[in-house]
Amino acid sequence: MPRKITYLQAVNEALLGEMRRDPSVVVFGEDVVGGAGAGGEMDAWGGPMGATKGIYDEFPERILDAPISESAFIGAAVGASASGLRPVAELMFVDFMGVCFDQIFNQAAKLRYMFGGKARVPLVIRTTFGAGIRAAAQHSECLYPIFTHIPGLKVVVPSNPYDAKGLLVRAIRDDDPVIFFENKVLYGMEGDVPEELYTIPFGEANVVRDGDDVTIVALGRMVSLADHAAEQLAEDGIECDVIDLRTTSPLDEETIYESIERTGRLVVVDEANPRCSIAADVCSLVAQNCFSDLKGPPRTVTAPHTPVPFSPVLEDAYVPSPERIAGAVRESVGAAATA
Amino acid sequence: MEEIGRDTLTRAYRTMRTIREFEERLHLEFATGDIPGFVHLYAGEEAIAAGVCAHLDDDDYVASTHRGHGHAIAKGCDVKGMMLELFGKRDGLCRGKGGSMHIADVEKGMLGANGIVGGGPPMVCGVGLSAKVRGTNQVGIAFVGDGGSNQGTFLESLNLSSVWNLPSVFVVENNGYAEATSSQFHQGGIDVAKRADGFGLPGVVIDGHDFFAVYEAAGEAVRRARSGGGPSLLECKVNRYYGHFEGDQQTYRAPGEVEEIRATRDCLDRFTAQVTGRGLIDADELSEIDAEVGALIEEAVAEARAAELPEPDDVLTDVYVRY
Fold it and tell me: Across the interface, which of A73, A120, A175 has its CB nearest the CB of B160?
């Protein structure tokens, strides 16, 4: 039965549901219990964002607070997954991957390949990303392009509560290492989510909105901003396809190409920094594979090539806005008209 | 000293001799130019791999280092499959995708040599957690060099295994050099074992040339781990007979240093003297093992040289289970 719950609750339901279904699923990370061993409540925090609240009550042996020691516990996820568990490790902010990156890209991602296909590493690293909570440069980055770049990893960036639950269940059941990006600004977003467990396949984008004039490709929090922009544009008679990538690795290239065949115009909206980004990658793929369909140059709407600033006025200027998205779409239509 | 069964002793000798022959032969084969890439030889350190792994079953795990052939052999990896892998052949242990620095066989509990110094210890924490959650009595062993003992991953893993009370054993093979830099210039404090104390686990120093000393200390650590007593750290003081990698001219070592160690501290010579001296195994039986091992290595090299190369398309497989 669908009912309205938040993105955060959707994540929590996926975790609890999978732990009930599969005894090999374990959860660990900083403060995921938050309070164990101290004088107050045991499950005081239930995760820095509250995503793991309630797990301790039901599965005290399968959820562990970790020391602030990301290299050790992310590496432990690799060893645990290679030896019979399905660990879900929480990396509080994706910016912290700088201290444990070796365990992700040299160990988790490469184990299967280096061992000639004789190992499986079914782990999930849940992490939060994105600007918008005034947390400044070291707690606000996107960084999914870095993980997307690495063969052996899968990268998931859900944009709404329904996808968050279905993609997380899918990630936990997946036999390869998955980096699962939760946008912290979206945690309070409400949406229809079924009570039962369900999965959403990887590598299948979601067409959020149909239109024949311009293809907007977006991911994460940018999907709702793009949809909002498309709504405004429709009032002026410009109809957009809005494609939510859902996963950046694997990437659903076909859905993008099919849309470009109809529209001939591409705007990619990506909250990440612009260089070597998903935006740049999608533009490059479209240029290589749909050149003859294009009516004008592909365009991108991204953050600038800067760290995320602190002051609210600066941070608001940093993140792509519906106005900037609409502007890029108008430009693409105008540019095509004069081409 | 604890009583060690005769079978255990002959198996340990066979393991040490196999590692030695494997490595001495690789030294020669590498010089022909037919083995691609980096090779780091374990010769001189055999008593550690043999003494530790004698306590392990197939379903126990080890995470190794870049100097990993000895651990792989001691953990039961197929010697011929290993040789094929080192020659880059299709039917190698890792299908020609890993080579010396990533040699592995998860089915034998060998979680890989590792090209990243200090890469293995966190994985061993995960192995321990896995055993604990699944309710088995498996243990995980992390081998680390003195170089690796300075990595944050090693120290973090001591802490994590201590707070999670994991069935882990950390074995530091202190051969006195981190690549070309001697301990004196890379390591604060004389004994790595003392670092264990700071994280609340026992740490002991052992003569890594002495199989019996390693066997006894490892036995205690493994028993503690299996019985829920938590992790331990063993520091084995040892020497390597070759350079950091094959091709290393070792100009940082004193003239005659290796020859002196080979003559006075060799683990196989010492083992032989100990077991024959006490009448545990006679010299003829050891010679028989030597001959069998020699033949095995000879065959392994011949088969590896004759084996098929991978097909270029193989580059694309084994990245994901499913993508």
Answer: A73
Residue B102: how many CB atoms within 10 A of its CB? Answer: 23
Distance CA(B48)–CA(B171), nearest Å, equals 9
Answer yes or no: same fold for A2-194 and A206-338. yes
Element spanning A235, H or E: helix A222-235
Contact B290, B22 (CB under 8 A): no
Burial B287-300 (b: 16+ CB within 10 A, else e): eebbeebeebbeeb
Are the beta carbons of A82 and B131 separated by less than 8 Å? no
Based on the residue annotation, tell me whether A139 is a catalytic residue of this protein: yes
Q: How confident is the model at residue B1 (pLDDT cuts 50, 70, 90)?
A: low
**Span between the terminal Cα atoms of chain A, in Å:** 50
Q: What is the CATH number of domain A206-338?
A: 3.40.50.920
Report chain B's terminal Cα–Cα distance, integer Å. 54
Question: A288's torsion region: left (phi>0), alpha (psi -120 to 50) or beta?
Answer: alpha
Query: For the whole model, what pTM was predicted?
Result: 0.97
Q: pLDDT value at position A133?
A: 94
pLDDT at B172 over 60: yes
Bond into B121 cis (ω within 30) = no
Residue in B closest to A69 by C-alpha: B156
CATH number attached to the domain at A2-194? 3.40.50.970
| B98 to A115: CB separation less than 8 angstroms, yes or no | yes
pLDDT value of residue A83: 98
How far apart, in whole angstroms, are the C-alpha atoms of residue B166 and residue B186? Answer: 29
d(CA B38, CA B102): 11
If one counts every other C-beta atom within 10 angstroms of the C-beta of residue B60, the result is: 25
Query: Could you tell me if the ipTM is greater than 0.90?
Result: yes
Residue B55, min C-alpha distance to chain A (Å): 19
Domains along chain B with CATH numbers: 6-269+280-306 (3.40.50.970)
Structural Rg of chain B based on CA atoms: 19
Strand partners for A266: A215
Q: Between chains, do B126 and A115 touch, taking CB under 8 Å as contact?
A: no
Q: Which residue has the tokens 């091709």?
A: B247
Q: How do residues A55-77 score in pLDDT, each as one tens digit?
A: 999 999 999 999 999 999 999 99
Distance to chain A for B236, nearest Cα, Å? 23
Strands A2-6 and A190-194: antiparallel
Res A337 pLDDT > 60: no
Going by pLDDT thresholds of 50, 70 and 90, the confidence category of residue A42 is confident
**How is chain A split into domains, by residue range?**
2-194, 206-338
Report d(CA A271, CA A278) in Å as an integer. 10
Contacts for B244-250: CB closer than 8 Å, 24+ residues apart: B244/B40, B244/B177, B244/B179, B244/B180, B245/B38, B245/B39, B245/B40, B246/B26, B246/B27, B246/B30, B246/B31, B246/B38, B246/B39, B246/B40, B246/B41, B247/B30, B248/B180
Q: How, if at all, do strands A247-249 and A154-156 pair?
A: antiparallel
Instruction: Give the pLDDT confidence score for residue A40 in this predicted structure.
Output: 86
Model confidence over B278-318: pLDDT tens digits? 999 999 999 999 999 999 999 999 999 999 999 999 999 99
